[in-house]
Amino acid sequence: MTNFMHFSDAHIGHRQYNMKLRRDDMYMSFRTAIKDGLEEDIDFAIFSGDLFHHKKVNARALRDAEKGLDIFWKNDVPVVVIQGNHDSKLYKEDLTWLEYLHSKGKVILLEGDFTDEGPVYEEHDFDEPGISSGFVEFDGVRIFGLQYSGQRTGERLDTVTREIEMINDEYGEPDYTIFMGHFGIEGHIPGMSGGISYNKLAQMEDVVDYVALGHLHKNYSHGDWVFNPGSLEAHNTREATWDLGYYIGKVTGENDIDVEHRLSKRRPFYKIEFSVEQYDNKSELLEGFKAKVEEELEGLEKIQEKEHHMKRGERRDPILDLRLKGLLRFSRSILDIEELMDIVREKTDAVKVQPSDATESIETEKVVEEIDGGRDEIFDEEGQLNRKKLENAVFQLKAEQDSRYREKKEEVSEMLMAIKKELLSDEPPESIAENIKKKRRNLFPEGGEKE
């Protein structure tokens, strides 16, 4: 029996929130997953892309990656990887960090060669590995990999299927075949486009027993042969509700496997939604907000006490999303969101509070009634106010009220938004004035300096 581990999307070196703490979170998820795999006595590990978060890997990220990979190496467990969209660009310009790790023997980087008429896949040479390989075999389990290919993924899958058939004819049929890819399958994340249709992948079913996917951070499987473990850490509140983790696979016989998905260790996320509508002044709102946060503490603690959120048996401090919504009954200038964030930090010990202001003021409500398209023009499907769209709509509304500017209200709005951006960037007043003159002359060449 052959045991293996399948995981993906560690995103080591992620600069989320520019917090050292979050970079440590990414490494902890990576390291604890590795140790769990070793406790299952795995024979090899496969990693389906995005080991790093960016091609430009800093020293800290490279050190964290090598520390994790060294745990495998010291236990004689080879690690097979492919390149994800965060690991490198679509077009190679120089040696990537995955190629560097491959040449050092820390990983086996698999990728297809689609640049000429030669073979797409070359067998891995353990003595002279080069900078990448095409396929590798362990105890009758043959593994192929396809690097992130963007829009070319579909056409390359056709080539890969034919190439696997040719290799099987040349080397003989293996006991079990794994194909690694960094792409998503359509339909598994609502609203997300750009994935491969399952029908496109189905052509491989006769030559592949296990498709090991990465890229989409959500765990899903398709049939009994396509598996995506999800990322190791959540990157936002939505992802935090998904079953993120990794697979432990046990090949029990020819074309026969037992697969178990396990949740990875990660920091808890929590969301508090607060409606401002029933409060007539700031003091009432603050009291209501404090009561709301108190009500949410029990729910937060239940999330924190889930085993995959604990660290050495202790609850971990959360990342908290704070969403404000509803019609504000007093001036927006009085609403201090930072003060609300301080209340949340004090009561929840959150390591990060992420505010989202979807409130409307009475003044905004009056403006919305006058805008062409009304609410649909400036609010998204979740009711979030798009302030850039609101600003644009207000400028157009003002321009339309003046007969001199009515015919060019869109252009006038663009000009005013550009001027505002310059003002907020502390551009010199003389420079801004000169830009206004130029923009005005371009818009109203017949109006002269009087427009």
How would you sum up this structure, described in words?
The chain has 451 residues and is an alpha/beta fold. It folds into two domains: 2-263, Metallo-dependent phosphatases (Purple Acid Phosphatase, chain A, domain 2); 269-450, no CATH class. Helix content is 36%, strand content 19%. The protein has 13 helices and 15 strands. The strands form three sheets. The protein has a six-stranded mixed sheet with strand order 4-3-2-1-11-12, covered by helices on one side. Helix 2 (59-74) links the parallel strand 2 and strand 3 (79-81). The protein is globular and about 80 Å long.
**Element-by-element helix/strand order:** EHEHEHEEEHEHEEEHEEEHEHEHHHHH
Number of helices: 13
Mean residue pLDDT: 86
CATH class of the largest domain: Alpha Beta
Biggest sheet: strands side by side, in what order? Answer: 4-3-2-1-11-12
Would you identify the regions where 5 or more consecutive residues have pLDDT less than 50? none
Overall tally of domains: 2
Range of strand content? 15-25%
Query: What do we call the CATH homologous superfamily of the largest domain?
Result: Metallo-dependent phosphatases
Distance between the termini: 83 Å
Oligomer: single chain
Radius of gyration: 28 Å
Helix and strand content put the structural class at: alpha/beta
How much helical structure, as a percent, in the residues?
25-40%
Q: Give me the CATH architecture of the largest domain, please.
A: 4-Layer Sandwich
CA-based shape: globular
- How many strands appear in the DSSP assignment? 15
The largest β sheet comes out as: 6 strands, mixed
CATH topology of the largest domain: Purple Acid Phosphatase, chain A, domain 2
